Amino acid sequence: MAAATYEWDAISQSIITAMAPAVAAVDQFSFIGESTHFVKTPEIDAQLLPTATSLGMDVMLFKYTISLFLVYPLALTLYYLPGKSVKHLFSFVVGFLMVQWIFGPDWIHTFITSLLTYILTRVIPGKSMPVLVFVIVMGYMVLAHGYKMYTSYLSGIFDFTGTQMVLTMKLTSYAWNIYDGIHDRKKVFAENADPKDRALASRRKFAITKYPSIVEFFGYIYCFTCILAGPAFEYADYAASIDDSAFIVPDAGKKDGEKAKGVVKRPLTLVAGLTRLLMGVVCMVLYLKITPIYKLTTLYDKEFIASHSFVERVVHLLLAMFGERQKYYFAWKVAEGASIMAGFGFEGYTTDASKTPGFTGVENIDIIGFETATNIATATRVWNKRTQGWLERYTYQRTNRSLYITYLISALWHGLYPGFFCVFLSMPLVTEVERLIRAKINPLFIPTYDAKDPKSYPNTPLGYIYKFFCWIGSILTMNYVAQTFSMGSLERSLGALGSLYYCGHVAFAVSYVVLSLFPSPKHKKTDKAKAQ
Fold first, then answer.
1. What is the mean pLDDT of residues 435-459?
2. H/E element holding 188?
3. I need a labelling partner for 186 at 20 to 30 A (CA). Which of 63, 132, 178, 200 fits?
4. Is the pLDDT of residue 527 over 60?
């Protein structure tokens, strides 16, 4: 196994080395970014350097981190600016200057892909347009990951690729929404459309029926509350918040979702935004407290593996992964708070006065929902929600519900390190096993439960015991599979999985075979069926 691992890492290094001519060719165009980079603050950078060094950060990462906090007063300013044109311009200018300040000459990558997308959506007709945009923008993202691997393999150096990942979601979804609202309008807004067709309803909800101006487009793309760490919400949601249509109170005689004219009630965003900020800070404190003790690098350390039992290694895995998740919770919650402060993500008013609308439209993570999830399907839905929605709407639904293509796109979007592929190429098998459990095992223990109706879960001792063991299984599965996400190389990934004897993959494969052969429970006929 060690020889095979070494061989694969040697292949990876060979591929990286073979990229040298391409990287040299790309570097010849670096003058474009350098010549268009004008937000230069060497004096401020010099003052930030000692603090950044003391925290183990480079200046770029430190500027990125403090920018997550600096956008809060700017977000509140955006919310209370008069007129949508001023808001679009403010959103664009602040985001543009921030990207220039943080990333320096590398800011140009955001501009190239954005401008190209805007042009292509205006000049390319038909269904080929969103496919072409998706291929180009995703291709650019993959090349950026490859460039990063070549220049700083496994170094962990911070760069522009994180922000480019956010833009990739926004640009590709924008192209599909233009197609749905302009090129495929007859089908998307057909009067005889099936009201139960959720995919079509989603397309209708986010469709862009009129080409935005270039300022409106760049205001959305460079929106400073979400360009750094997300959330990558849809253009329709952005525009509705900017022009206040998201805050319209429907008349009593109107159905939910129908817009009334002129009745605008702007919600208070300060408390909701600061609450997310506080949650993010708490998560960062947990990260700083837990990760120095329970390190992910220990999971593939040979001395640790040799000196600790299997159970001790599993416990270390669970605690190390819990600590690792806190840094994602921090970035997502702080960015979510800023977006809420600017008025984004509002759920909208309904005619039901008993319901208090919130701001879940920009929620990227439901922390409690993830940590208490009793199945992988629920866990993946509440983890990195905006990315999950993007993958579902613009890959899964557009590729005839191909699970494997969806996970492949997800892996490529995250990066090219083998560790990412170990995670995402394991998930289809996990998903299939869970589907079999839901179809064949759930009816034996919770026969009255309907997954579409959470309230139908039986409040019985057996139901609670079954839920507890499902939670244990989900936690073990998710942490086992996801551990390689932060490992990077194949050697580290296989070292961590091998320290647990690949027990998870063995269990998944055996469970799939056994459950496939397991007979499906017979459903009792309803009274209506008997009468027929």
1. 88
2. helix 185-188
3. 132
4. no
> What was the pLDDT predicted at 149?
83
Residue 458 preceded by cis peptide, ω within 30: no
pLDDT at 193: 80
Token code pair at residue 472: 């244990």
196, 139 contact by CB (below 8 A): no
Provide the pLDDT confidence category of residue 29 given band limits of 50, 70 and 90: confident
Give alpha helix (H) positions in 291-426: 302-307, 310-341, 367-371, 376-382, 385-391, 403-414, 418-424
State the pLDDT at residue 173. 97
State both tokens at 477. 């599965």
Output Rg (C-alpha) for the chain, integer angstroms.
Answer: 25
Which tokens is 302 given? 């040979």
Ranking 202-206, 353-357, 399-403 by mean pLDDT, the lowest is: 353-357
Q: How far apart are CA 278 and CA 334, in angstroms?
A: 8
**What is the chain's mean pLDDT, rounded?**
89
Does residue 33 contact residue 26 with C-beta atoms inside 8 Å? no
User: For 476, phi and psi rounded to 5 degrees?
Assistant: -65, -45
Contact present, 394 and 406 (Cβ < 8 Å): no
Please give the full DSSP string across 438-458, using - where no structure is assigned: HHHTHHHH-TT-BTTBGGGS-
What CA–CA distance (Å, rounded) separates 107 from 479? 35
pLDDT of the residue at 531: 39
The residue among 393, 429, 388, 381 whose CA lies nearest residue 410 is 388
Q: Taking a C-beta distance cutoff of 8 angstroms, is the pair 172, 130 a contact?
A: yes
Segment 91-111 mean pLDDT: 96
Helix (H) or strand (E) holding 39: none
Surface-to-core class of residue 353, CB atoms within 10 Å of its CB (0-12 exposed, 13-18 middle, 19+ buried)? exposed
Q: What does the block give as tokens for 76?
A: 């509140």
- Dist CA 113 CA 337 (whole Å): 27
291-304 average pLDDT score: 94
* pLDDT computed for residue 252 by the predictor: 58
For the chain, how far is it from start to end, CA to CA, in angstroms? 61
- pLDDT at 7 (0 to 100): 58
Classify burial at 282, counting beta carbons within 10 Å of its beta carbon; exposed 0-12, middle 13-18, buried 19 or more: middle
pTM, entire model: 0.90
Planar angle of CA 65, 413, 203, nearest 5 degrees: 100
Q: Alpha-carbon distance 330 to 335, whole Å?
A: 8
**φ and ψ of 264, to 5 deg:** -115, 130
